[in-house]
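My hope is that you will study the record closing this message with an eye to the fold:
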Amino acid sequence: MSLNKTPTANRLHIAIFGKRNAGKSSLINAITNQNLAIVSGFAGTTTDPVYKAMEILPIGPVVLIDTAGIDDEGELGELRIKKSIDVIKKTDIALIVISSDDGITTFDYEVIDKLKKSETPFIIVINKIDINDLNLKLENEIKSLKVPYIKVSALKKIGIEDLKKVIIKYSPKTFEQPSIVGDLIQPGDTVVLVIPIDTGMPKGRLILPQVQTIRDILDNDAIVHITKERELRLALSNLKQKPKIVITDSQAFMKVSADTPNDILLTSFSILFARYKGDLFKLVKGAKALRDLKPGDKILIAEACTHHQQPDDIGSVKIPRWIRQNIEPDVHFDFYSGRDYPDNLKEYKVVIHCAGCVLNRKEMLSRIEASEVEGIPIINYGVAIVFLHGILDRALKPFPEVYYEWLEN
């Protein structure tokens, strides 16, 4: 991945909902001015959510999500509807496409209700005005909802530019994550990144969180030095200026902590991403659940992406081994990977989640909330690793509010 490409997880996620044949795919083609989505006169052409990352002027980098019709039928149709509704968890702003000759249906109201409950902003798009203009009854019904709406013809490309302006106006201003490390440093500060090169490192490149951290440091006019864990002592001794902070891969934290003087702040990429993508307070609270594990407890290890597992895989091998060695040998682990998220969280004592680098912040927060609703603590890999090695206190010092909260509890 090149540095000048916005990662998918950092793009505005625009999901398009509506009945079959309301014109959702046609709308995507009109917005993008490309034939990205298959258009057909037959209902149900789109069967699963389709994601397309792209640049749309003047909106900028976005992910458009085309969903299956919310009025799909049959047993398979119900599964498609569920997948469409699940998209809300990662949606920054939604477009509800309504055919001008159909009006707002019970299916549309069900989606509207779910969007409101999740506090997801949405726009009603009345399509096919080239066939039937908006009648007064329907317009009054839409106005009673007190939400933005706009009339378009996806086929004739009428109103599309105005729709883009409405999307910009009503998109959440905070859909992008907070700074990764920029709020911890000042212009001119020195930051040292410790990046081990092990069997899990992609050959010839860095992984996404490392690249994003480097970019954030440069955007904040600080100076970055990169080294492997074995060369850290030499790197620190060669610096004329003491670094403001050292950031390491979680797996090397023990050695890096031993080699980094106590007057230098120290944390990990995964802990930085715990607050960048989610809620560091809540993820740190999950450490208490690890501390209180009992024989027979079940633990869910969840990863947002699927990847080829290495013999020393962090999620499936190392973390379970450290838990059995350091806390409780008689525990059971279940493993889950992918963009869907399991519903049976109640059977687990704790969820241990990856850093979520492929998720947008809305989706990661929704996973944290899903655990919270079920009363199941959740912790991410980085927090779990440093806790299991007894150095969570030091890893949290760069974040005073979280640090003192952890010490008090």
Observations:
- The CA atoms of residues 107 and 188 lie 55 Å apart.
